[in-house]
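Open question from group meeting: does this chain pack into something compact, or does most of it stay loose? Before anyone orders reagents, we agreed to write out a predicted structure and look at it together. Recording both the input and the output here so the notebook holds the full record.
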Amino acid sequence: MNDRLRLLQRQPRRITITLSYHVHEALLNRSEEEGRSVSNLCAFLLEESLRHPQALPAAPEGLGIERRQERHQGMHPGADGHLRQRRPG
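Structure tokens returned:
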């Protein structure tokens, strides 16, 4: 792999998500308390949750998170960022 390609793979990526009003308000409040941008706070929270998944609290009932987790079992992110089925072996 050449150096330019390695450098491009390490560049930050931008995503768009949709949040409930209450989650957005909570993020705004926390970002103000911590003196950081909402974007920076979200990136930090996502990185921490991926680094320490066992520390995540159980999902509140009614959010449908359990169904999404079951649906994505055995999946992994592909090179393009989309989930792919894990191949046996």
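Observations to bring back to the group:
The radius of gyration is 16 Å.
Residues 12-85 form one domain.
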